[in-house]
Amino acid sequence: MNLIKGIGFYYLSHPEQQAYRVMLNAFSKMAASINCSQINRGVDLMRVLQVVLDDNPFIVYFDKTKMETEESILGKRIILTGVHPKTQAEKMNLSLDTTANKIASLVRSRSTLNDDYFLLINLYEILQKNIQYDKDELQANMKKVSNNPASHNAYGALINKLAVCDGFSSAFSLLAQKLGFECTLVTGHSAYTSMALTDHAWNIIKVQNKYYHMDITWDALNYKEFNEFSYSYFALTDEEIGSDHRWNRAVVPNCPNSDFSYYTKNGLYVKNIEQLKEILRVITKKKSNVYRIKLSHNIKLPSNSAEYLAQMTLNEVAKLGMRTQASYGWNENIRCFFAKIT
C-alpha cells in the first residue's frame, strides 16, 4: 500500500501527528488492532484515525464502519473488525492498484493537453459514469448497520462499482493521488434534497497551491437522474459548499478560490439577468440540448425559480421555431441550473 502523510496530517497537533504515525505503521502491516499505549492520553484517537483513513484511500482491508477502542491496564487499543486474511487483503490491494492505474492511464489519454483542469474533469466524468450509488447500503446505514462495508471504500467503488459517499470520495481521492494531486476526504454532514443534515463525505484537493472542495457523490446522483454529466460540486469554495455542507473547518485547508470551477472555466457564471439571457442565447445558437449555468446570489429570482429559468430557456429555443420540452433542475443552495431539451 502506498501510505502517505497527507493533507490532514498537517492540520494535527504534534501529539496527534505522533498518533497518526503509529496508526500509519499499523496499517502498513495490515494489523487487526492498533496499540495506542504510547500515544498521549489527551489525543482523540478516533478523530486521528479518521484523518489517517481520509488521507489514505488505499486502506481497504477491514470494515471501517465498525472501529472501536478498548481500554485495559496496558492502555488503549483500537480494534478493527471485518479484517480480511492477509493473503486476501494483498490480492485486494493488487486488484485495486491495477484498476486504479488503468483508470489513471485512461484519464491521461483523454486529457491530451495534460492540463490539471482537464485531468480532473475527465476523472470526474469517468467516476460518474461507472459507479452506482448503493441505495440499499444507505438504507441500512440509516438504521445504524452496514450490510456492504466495501461500499464505504475505494475497493467497493472501483472494483464492485458500487458505493455510498465515502466510497465515491475514496475512489476520487485515490485516483487523484495517482494523477499526482494531493487529495483527502472531508467527513462531515450535508443535506441532499432536504433540510435534514446527515453524515456525509467529500473531498478537498490541492491544485497548483490552491485548495478546492469536490463532491463527486452529489454530481453522480445528478448524472443518474438526467443521464448528463454534472459539475455543480466541482471545485467549490468554502462559502459555496457551506450552503449545504457542514464540517470542522479547523482541521482542513481553507478553500477561498473559485477560479477552477467548471462554470468559471467555461464562462457560465452569470452576475445579472442580461448576462443570463445572453448565455442562454449563445448556448441555443450552438444548438446544444444541454444548458448548465451558475447564477450569482445577487440575481433575484421569483419563488418558482426552477420553472422560471426553464421557461426562459424554452423561450430561446422557441425562437428557432422548435417545439420542445425540457427536463430541468435547480439547486438553490449553490445556484446551479441545469436543463436538457428534448
Report on the structure:
There is one protein chain. The protein is an alpha+beta fold and 342 residues long. The protein folds into three domains: 7-81, no CATH class; 86-258, C8orf32 fold, CATH 3.10.620; 267-341, Ribosomal Protein S8, Chain: A, domain 1 (2-Layer Sandwich). Helices cover 41% and strands 21% of the residues. It has twelve helices and 14 strands. The strands form four sheets. A five-stranded antiparallel sheet has the order 9-8-7-6-10. Strands 11-12-14-13 form a four-stranded mixed sheet. β11 (269-270), α11 and β12 (290-295) form a beta-alpha-beta unit. α3 crosses α7 and α4 crosses α8. The longest helix is centred in the first third of the chain and has 25 residues, at 86-110. The radius of gyration is 22 Å and the shape is elongated. It starts with 13 loop residues before the first helix and ends with a strand. The mean pLDDT is 94.
User: What's the total number of strands?
Assistant: 14
What is the radius of gyration computed over CA atoms, rounded to a whole number of angstroms?
A: 22 Å
Overall 3D form: elongated
Order of helices and strands: HEHEEHHEHHEHEEEHEHEHEHEHEE
Please work out how many helical segments DSSP would assign.
12
Q: What proportion of the residues is helical, as a percent range?
A: 40-55%
